[in-house]
């Protein structure tokens, strides 16, 4: 958008001559500037000037009358301006002249008037101040006379008036020294009067830890004035009185309410004259022996104190103090927290006496707290608490019981208190099973009937369990077979504890690991005589020798024979637990005659249980008996304090809480101990034993419904926890074995001696770890579970080695020999599954991979024809077709014979051939 040029500005084409000349001058260079050129520019300017004058003259002449009119108007304005200026100058002189001007004269007059007014005000203020000071002086003299004369009530009234007078001070005295001095003197006089009042009060009302002294009159120090207690109390300021009442309430609560309600004491009242002649009233307390103390006496003592205060102190207190009602809350709390709650009995025998005391406390609340102290608006806290006294009693018992359980759980137990529990094992007839393991019925007997051992628990003296006979346990065993038709009506008889003491240290266990198992020779499959760690010191039962089981093949001839006899029955393995009902009879009862002859032989196996869980079970049994006794006694129902809540329910439900506490607390406090397999399996045994014993407790007919359901839940959880710890311990061992075998790096490159040494070290370490685990857990677990655990660990090790070797893409002749040597190391583990050296092992029953692993070690050195022969005979049915094909490809070079063998393998395993009986 272009800039709009105003119309009054000259356009470029209408530039004046001066502008044109100046433009020319600026455009002319110094060399081109001459005299003629300059004369030309001057001539142009002269012409322009003349032209301008001519235009002006023409313009004036064109409208000359208007020009003359405007000229005359301008002259008139000029004259009026001169006149106005003269008048303004005159007015300014009349107003501002220093001598005669109006403004200076007015200012001087006002200044003299203000000075006179200030002098008058100062004189009036001085008069008022002197009058105020004279009045204050007179009042101060009167106050000093009263204070010096000991007339303290009058002095208090006087200084309150003076205090009001000083608050109405004169403005002229603000900041004056005389007024500040007057205030200091007043404060000193007031403090002296208050100090004398406090001193008089302190001698009128004395409350300490041994006595209360109340004097109705007291003489003021350094005077002959005698003041009464009401006058002293009424003269105290509100702030001072509130502070003294707070201190008095605190002292009475601490020394005469809390103390008398929490301890045995004797209260004595006396009235004696003091040295000044005034009568003083005393209440003294003395400690009393707690033996044979009647708890009602504590309430009686507090009643005596309140009656003493109500007679000699409360009537003299000002109504504004509200002191008696302020004692109601501390008294109520002390009655509950210091007396009733701590006095809750710990035995049912003491409960009736305590209930009588509770009734007395309820009457005390109505008569004294709500009556004498006047707390009519407060709630019936003591009566409300008394209405649930049964619940409070049972809650206290629950705390005591759980504390006792906690002491047992955290007790640093040694192996001396452990005992062996029995299980009944049922074997089926050999004709009814092939290689399956025998069935098992858990039937527990607490073989140790000795009292609980001494330990660090502070409550072991007061347990009062006595000697208890072991009882048979109705337990659902392992839950594997609930349909067994077995006659188990005969109760189990207790057996004596094993004379073999448990290991004293882990170091000793490690030191005796090899010797205890007879596995000194790693390649030997024989075992030392079975030491029967689960026996009870009795002679072993004579059993018919079972048929021999197949052993690891050492030659190809034996391998072929194994393929033919695979369906044969191996040696009888130890039993595996299954579920079956167990008898419900005490071990002292005579066994009933069986209804029919036993169709299956019954054996007994034992396992190690800690003394800790036995004490916990005794505690649970005692709690249930206590709950039943409390319910049957009817002591709470017959008492007026009892509520409608079901009696004995809380105590009864504490029993499963003990088991819950054990399951939750012991894995934490015993974490370091449970890191060892021996103790971890022991904890599994403890939980299993508890689960079995809880079944016996569930047979009680006096159980609360909620308690029964919680005990059933505790039984299930204990059984689950036992299984979890058992499986977790085996899992940790399997993880350790896998970590050790990781060092073998898949058994690659065993043709090199360094790699072979590393693999041999890893395999030997696995062997030692399995032996050590077996040695540690052999005396802990029941025989069947022990073989299950060892079998699972050995099977995991063999399966890992099988997986690694079968995954090798190429195996040279040297490597096959080396792998065979490594596999033969594990033959020493067969000795773990031998009880009788004269009988074959039952390793196949617990190690599914054993035969497959044994064949693998021989296949490492077998020829192609040997492998084909074994395959045709059905000896390699444990191998998958893919595994056999991969193994043949890894062991042999690519030849037509290998191709034909692989084609035959791909057709699948031949049908099994059963041997004729």
What keyword list fits this structure?
5% strand; two-stranded antiparallel sheet; 8 strands; mainly alpha; 917 residues; single chain
Task: Describe the protein in words.
By secondary structure, the chain is mainly alpha-helical. Among the domains are: 13-62; 149-325, no CATH class; 327-387, no CATH class; 401-417 and 610-729, no CATH class; 730-906, Orthogonal Bundle (Tetracycline Repressor, domain 2), CATH 1.10.357.150. 56% of the residues lie in helices and 5% in strands. The protein has helices spanning 17-27, 35-62, 64-96, 102-148, 152-167, 177-204, 229-235, 238-262, 296-312, 323-326, 328-340, 351-372, 381-387, 389-409, 506-511, 513-517, 556-564, 611-633, 649-669, 671-674, 677-698, 705-742, 753-777, 783-806, 813-825, 843-846, 850-859, 864-872, 881-891, 896-906, and strands spanning 205-207, 211-215, 217-219, 226-228, 265-273, 279-287, 419-426, 602-609. Strands 1-2-6-5 form a four-stranded antiparallel beta sheet. The chain has a two-stranded antiparallel ribbon with strand order 3-4. A two-stranded antiparallel ribbon has the order 7-8. Helix 22 packs antiparallel against helix 23. The chain is flat and about 155 Å long. The model is unreliable at 429-531, 536-571 and 576-598 (pLDDT under 50).
């Amino acid at each position: 958008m272009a800039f709009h040029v105003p119309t009054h500005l000259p356009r470029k084409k209408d530039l004046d001559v001066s502008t044109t000349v100046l433009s020319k001058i600026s455009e002319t260079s110094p060399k081109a500037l001459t005299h003629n050129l300059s004369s030309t520019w001057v001539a142009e300017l002269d012409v322009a000037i003349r032209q301008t004058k001519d235009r002006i003259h023409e313009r004036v002449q064109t409208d000359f009358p208007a020009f003359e009119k405007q000229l005359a108007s301008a002259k008139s304005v000029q004259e009026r301006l001169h006149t106005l200026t003269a008048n303004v100058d005159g007015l300014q002189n009349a107003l501002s002249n220093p001598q005669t001007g109006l403004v200076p004269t007015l200012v001087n007059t006002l200044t003299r008037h203000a000075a006179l007014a200030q002098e008058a005000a100062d004189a009036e203020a001085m008069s008022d101040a002197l009058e105020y000071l004279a009045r204050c002086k007179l009042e101060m003299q009167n106050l000093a006379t009263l204070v010096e004369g000991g007339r303290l009530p009058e002095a208090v009234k006087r200084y309150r008036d003076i205090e009001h007078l000083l608050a109405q001070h004169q403005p002229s005295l603000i900041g004056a020294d005389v007024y500040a001095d007057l205030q200091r003197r007043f404060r000193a006089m007031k403090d002296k009067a208050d100090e004398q009042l406090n001193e008089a009060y302190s001698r009128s009302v004395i409350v300490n830890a041994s006595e209360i002294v109340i004097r109705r009159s007291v003489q003021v120090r350094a005077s002959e004035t005698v003041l009464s207690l009401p006058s002293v109390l009424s003269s105290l300021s509100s702030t001072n009185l509130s502070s003294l009442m707070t201190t008095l309430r605190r002292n009475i609560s601490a020394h005469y309410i809390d103390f008398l309600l929490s301890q045995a004491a004797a209260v004595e009242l006396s009235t004696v004259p003091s040295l000044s002649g005034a009568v003083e009233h005393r209440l003294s307390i003395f400690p009393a022996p707690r033996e044979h103390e009647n708890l009602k006496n504590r309430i009686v003592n507090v009643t005596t104190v309140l009656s003493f205060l109500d007679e000699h102190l409360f009537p003299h207190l000002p109504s504004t103090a509200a002191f008696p009602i302020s004692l109601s809350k501390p008294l109520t709390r002390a009655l509950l927290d210091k007396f009733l709650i701590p006095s809750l009995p710990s035995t049912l025998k003491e409960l009736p006496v305590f209930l009588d005391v509770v009734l007395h406390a309820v009457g005390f609340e109505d008569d004294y707290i709500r009556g004498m102290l006047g707390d009519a608006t407060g709630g019936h806290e003591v009566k409300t608490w008394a209405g649930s006294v049964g619940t409070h009693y049972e809650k206290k018992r629950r705390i005591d019981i759980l504390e006792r359980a906690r002491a047992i759980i955290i007790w640093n137990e040694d192996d001396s208190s452990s005992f062996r529990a029995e299980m009944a094992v049922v074997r089926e007839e050999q004709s009814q099973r092939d290689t399956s393991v025998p069935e098992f019925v858990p039937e527990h007997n607490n073989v140790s009937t000795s009292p609980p051992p001494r330990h660090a628990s502070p409550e072991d003296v007061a347990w009062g369990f006595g000697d208890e006979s072991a009882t048979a346990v109705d337990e659902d065993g392992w839950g594997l077979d609930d349909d067994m038709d077995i006659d188990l009506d005969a109760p189990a008889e207790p057996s004596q504890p094993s004379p073999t003491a448990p290991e004293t240290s882990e170091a000793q266990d490690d030191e005796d690991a090899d010797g205890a198992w007879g596995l000194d020779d790693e390649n030997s499959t024989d075992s030392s005589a079975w030491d029967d760690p689960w026996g009870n010191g009795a002679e072993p039962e004579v059993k018919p020798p079972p048929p021999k089981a197949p052993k690891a093949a050492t030659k190809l001839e034996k391998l072929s024979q194994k393929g033919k006899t695979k369906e044969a029955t191996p040696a009888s393995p130890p039993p595996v637990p299954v579920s079956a009902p167990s008898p419900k009879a005490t071990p002292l009862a005579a066994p009933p005659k069986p209804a029919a002859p036993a169709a299956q032989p019954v054996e007994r196996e034992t396992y190690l249980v800690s003394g800790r869980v036995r004490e916990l079970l005794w505690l649970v049994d005692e709690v249930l008996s206590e709950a039943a006794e409390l319910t049957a006694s009817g002591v709470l129902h017959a008492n007026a304090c009892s509520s409608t809540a079901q009696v004995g329910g809380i105590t009864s439900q504490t029993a499963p809480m003990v088991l819950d506490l054990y399951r939750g607390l012991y894995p934490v406090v015993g974490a370091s101990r449970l890191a060892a397999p021996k103790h971890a399996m022991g904890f599994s045994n403890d939980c299993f034993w508890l689960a079995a014993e809880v079944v016996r407790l569930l047979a009680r007919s006096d159980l609360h419904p909620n308690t029964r359901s919680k005990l059933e839940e505790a039984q299930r959880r204990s059984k689950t926890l036992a299984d979890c710890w058992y499986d977790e311990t085996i899992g940790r061992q399997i993880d350790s074995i896998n970590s050790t075998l990781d060092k073998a790096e898949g058994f690659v490159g065993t043709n090199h001696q360094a790699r072979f040494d590393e693999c041999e070290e890893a395999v030997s370490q696995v062997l030692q770890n399995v032996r050590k685990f077996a040695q540690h857990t052999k005396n802990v677990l029941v025989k069947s579970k022990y073989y299950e655990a060892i079998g699972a660990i050995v099977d995991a090790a063999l399966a890992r080695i099988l997986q690694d070797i079968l995954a090798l893409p190429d195996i040279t002749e040297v490597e096959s020999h080396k792998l065979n040597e490594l596999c033969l190391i594990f033959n020493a583990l067969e000795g773990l599954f031998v009880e009788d050296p004269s009988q074959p092992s039952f390793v196949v029953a617990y190690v599914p991979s054993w035969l497959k692993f044994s064949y693998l070690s021989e296949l490492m050195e077998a020829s192609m024809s040997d492998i084909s022969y074994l395959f045709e005979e059905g000896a390699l049915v444990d191998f998958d077709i893919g595994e056999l094909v991969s193994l043949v490809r890894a062991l042999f070079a690519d030849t037509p014979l290998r191709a034909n063998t692989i084609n035959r393998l791909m057709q699948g395993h031949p049908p099994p051939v059963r041997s004729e009986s």
